[in-house]
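Lecture notes, continued. The same structure-token format from the folding unit now serves as the input rather than the output. Read the line below as a description of shape only.
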């Protein structure tokens, strides 16, 4: 809780074999990057520079909470557990983070994540939102949105150190 400085909200874990690792949008380095993650890395490359790997664990270690609204998914069934049990819990996580005195940047990608915007009411926090990084919507506002540099600009303006997104 104390270390969270950025929240990136996803929908649900990847549903392919061995993809999910408990961090939204991330997969282990031994698994090929799914299309949404490829687009995230493409936007990062345009925004701040190239990143040579796709496991996002290093972001989590710097205070980036990679949170999915649903924490489980049936094999091969994207969004298969939506509306069943997880959303009240993950909404509560967002509400608790909203109470932090230190600034937090909430990055909301896509309609599903943007619905959570109403849970972030603390004026100390920043919200960065855009289209989802999926190939179906990335060209409708995700590409060119510069979420990584925007998040760092806000953190620095609030006296915090930036995230090393390339690490």
């Amino acid at each position: 809780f104390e270390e969270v400085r950025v929240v990136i909200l996803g929908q649900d874990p990847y549903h392919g074999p061995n993809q999910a690792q408990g961090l939204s949008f991330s997969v282990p380095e031994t698994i090929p990057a799914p299309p949404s993650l490829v687009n995230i890395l493409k936007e990062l490359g345009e925004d701040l520079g190239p990143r040579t790997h796709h496991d996002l664990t290093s972001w989590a270690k710097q205070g980036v909470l990679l949170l999915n609204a649903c924490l489980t998914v049936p094999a091969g069934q994207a969004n298969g557990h939506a509306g069943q049990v997880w959303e009240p819990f993950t909404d509560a996580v967002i509400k608790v983070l909203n109470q932090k005195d230190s600034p937090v940047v909430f990055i909301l990608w896509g309609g599903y994540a943007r619905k959570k915007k109403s849970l972030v009411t603390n004026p100390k926090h920043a919200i960065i939102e855009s289209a989802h990084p999926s190939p179906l919507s990335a060209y409708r506002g995700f590409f060119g949105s510069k979420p990584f540099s925007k998040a760092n600009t806000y953190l620095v303006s609030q006296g915090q150190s930036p995230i090393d997104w390339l690490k």
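Point for the exam: The mean pLDDT is 90.
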